[in-house]
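Q: Second attempt. The first request was missing the SMILES, so the protein and pyridoxal-5'-phosphate are both included now.
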Amino acid sequence: MNNIEIDKKYVANTYARFPVSIVSGKGSYLYDEKGKEYIDMGSGIGVTAFGISDDEWNQAVINQLGKVQHTSNLYYTQPCATLAMMICERTGMRKVFFGNSGAEANECAIKVARKYGADKKGKDYNVIVTLKNSFHGRTLTTLAATGQDKFHELFQPLTSGFVHATANDLDSVKNAVKENKVCAIMIECVQGEGGVIALDKEFVKGIKEICDKEDILLIVDEVQTGNGRTGYLYSFMAFDVEPDVFTTAKGLGGGLPLGCCVMNEKTQNVLGFGDHGSTFGGNPISCAGAISVMERLDGEFLTNVKRKSEYVFKELSNAKGVESVSGMGLMVGIKTVRPAKEIIAECIEKGVLCLSAKDKVRLLPALNIPMSVLENAIKIIKDACAKI
Ligand SMILES: *Cc1c(COP(=O)(O)O)cnc(C)c1O
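A: Got both inputs this time. The predicted holo structure:
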């Protein structure tokens, strides 16, 4: 049996994988078993922020591997402390809890919100308002937070205490807050899995006002949008709001599992000793990789992300076979005339790996993708779209 056959036989059937078996890569190129080269326009769903086998990231990880790979959270390690300091200093937040994934980061934020509600207003103030079409993870609680029925049907009962309001409809959020005992509102500023759709700035600001007025927490899920993806260090910075809690994962570790829940002045001490924990959380190797990512996400780098984004939006808007382009930074959704599936299959054929989100083709290239490589990929994607 070849690798694909072995995988099909022994790995759980939860993924509709593309018929590509990746062996290696460098930067924004990936290579399959036959040595075929692909331009990587998905970066492992926004994870390999600096591409595959990036020299600086590799060196940071290898250095840490030679020291200690895991200690548990019973002891202090330098990478964990340094990364927490970097995240706080660059966002104005106060404390970081480390886990290993986006869903875990959101679980932590939800625990913070419930405890905050209980401390401030009483135990029954435990409802969290999220948005329809959102995505917050695959655990039973983050599925409950996710505002898409198709994820809920098979796994009842989910964690209770979530209501879903309509995106860009402030009255819908206000009603949800009025009708329930709410402790937090949780949003993605750009809905990723929901189709790469940025919320209206006024809507996000309106939510922040409701949160301040009612003393409920604003949680921003930056799992996909964070760490430079939108051309801002975190997307809330583009929306001019300061969250009480934000979560991130995906690109943070640059390819190793790492997620975190970040708390501000108001929420920093909500969780105390014994209230939460994770065996792997804050793993020194993951954190060493993340430090090398964070160090490079400076103003100049982010300006370059914005420039590349402008190029992509300009090329694809009004291109033949493209109905619309959405998103922000290097988080791009393309509504195509032909089904997205066909475009993606044709791009694979031509050596470009794209993602999908709902009915769109989604692009999440490495943030440091060279301009010439980006141009080649966009040309192939445009050609595929144009065949109608
Ligand atoms: C991917 C994603 C998650 C879940 O992250 P995992 O690491 O898969 O648990 C949560 N929220 C958003 C916005 C995401 O894009």
